[in-house]
Design brief:
The structure is a single chain. Helices cover about 80% and strands about 0% of the residues. The protein is mainly alpha-helical. The protein folds into two domains: about 120 residues; about 35 residues, no CATH class. The chain starts with 9 loop residues before the first helix and ends with a helix.
Length: about 170
Amino acid sequence: MTGQPERLPTDIVEARLNHLIDRARRGRLLHEEADRFTTELRDLVRRMEGTEDERDRVANEVKILRARVNDQNAAADVAVSAVRLMNEAGAQRDRAEARVRELEAENTRYEEVVGELNEANTGLQRDNARLTAGQCLDQRAMCEKHHAPPVDGCPYPRCRAARNRDRRAATA
């Protein structure tokens, strides 16, 4: 054995103490009962102190564990927030990439249209360069379209009036 006296359960010790207290009140406590009373009372006080120490130790452990749980909850909250932000950033990136693809496709279509318009414009400029004043006789709109500055030999009044105005200005 460990050399320590056998510990009795607290309820038995309490019953014995109550019996001894009752006898002490009536003045019927014997010397050996007083010694036993003192011994059991000391044992009970030691147990209570041990229980208080244990309670304080457990309370401190509970505080430490609560602090750890709070820290872990805070870390979990930060992690959840980070995951949400990463998910939102990923969704924004996906939307941006889709928009970039749409814009690239639209740009390709515009480049094709611009290429076709440039080809048509080049053809019209070639046709325009070949036209002479007499070729505009059939339509006044053609005259106005091809002759922004007046052209010698064009029979339409706009060109004639502009030529006459230019001649008067030169002679004045």
